[in-house]
Amino acid sequence: MATIKDVARVAGVSTATVSRVVHNGGQVGDACRARVQKVIKELGYRPNTNARALVSKTSNTIGVVTPRLSMTFFGCLAAGVEKAAREQKYKLLMSNSLYETKTELEAIESLREHSCSAIILHSEYSDEKTLKKLADEIPGLVIVNRFIPELANRCVWLDNEAGAQKVADHLLDKGHRDIAVVTSVYQNNDPEFRLNGVRAAIEKRGLSLNPEAIVESTANMRGGEEAVTALLEKGVKFSAVVAYNDLMAVGALNALQDAGLRVPEDVSVVGFDNLYVSTACRPKLTTMDYPVEEMANYAANLAINLSTGDNKVSSQTHLFMPTLVERNSVAKK
Predict the structure, then answer these.
(1) Among positive and negative, which fits the CA dihedral 74, 80, 81, 83?
(2) Predicted confidence (pLDDT) per residue in 111-144, tens digit
(3) Domains along the sequence of the chain with CATH
(4) Which residue in 39, 122, 240, 322 is a FRET match for 108, CA 20 to 30 A apart?
């Protein structure tokens, strides 16, 4: 493998000149630059970015830590970060936390060992004290889908409660009064915020949410099926289902149809996230659009700016709002 010394020897220049050509810096004449670039191509020289990072203690590398990249939501998040990385000419490193605090912290440490000063973190379970400490140590740490007041300038988050209120208002405006909520057992804040939003919208109409109409399950299709099946077996009265996410909503559709109920003629169903599956099911799903790719792209640029000392973003907050996408799974009552 060719080295920088090999390029310098063949091109008849110093290694410093080769370095300036490689990194597009310094004063190098056009003819000299062209000659060095020609030799680099002929010898197949590739700069040792790891060695450079060891010297500078940083690198043009952005890291992403999510619970599980194989899940559609987190895959979309990674895609948003990758878009920003390409535009900024950054390399991308990704890691799974597998919903475990220990693994999450190990993933962050691994990225730091690779000199990542810009890191996008979707943290499920690390406590706020730990995240504040990491923020002090990592200039470009940005937290997605979680809001910590003391780290407001590092958080890119969605107003889940407001989004859930919009969902419930949509159903209430359609005449639904008996609303069931299929929520997630996961111990993060999103299920609580979304449930609170539904409850707030219902109570503003002088109504109340039936406690028996709230069922927790795993946040996937099977969980949605099991939750709706449980509602039907208990004989709970409902004309509409608010699902924690689109996967649970699709599971709810399946369970209702298996029970001989038509959607939306007999029961309306709404989801949350606007994932690809929401248009692949039948009927197509009314849902709240969670702009995860846009948020991730924004977070990546924010992380890079913070890591390079851009003080313009130091006092900003970064809140996104979901929007209702109406399709075919809701009917008037």
Answers:
(1) positive
(2) 988 888 899 999 977 899 999 999 998 989 999 9
(3) 4-47 (1.10.260.40), 59-158+292-322 (3.40.50.2300), 160-290 (3.40.50.2300)
(4) 322
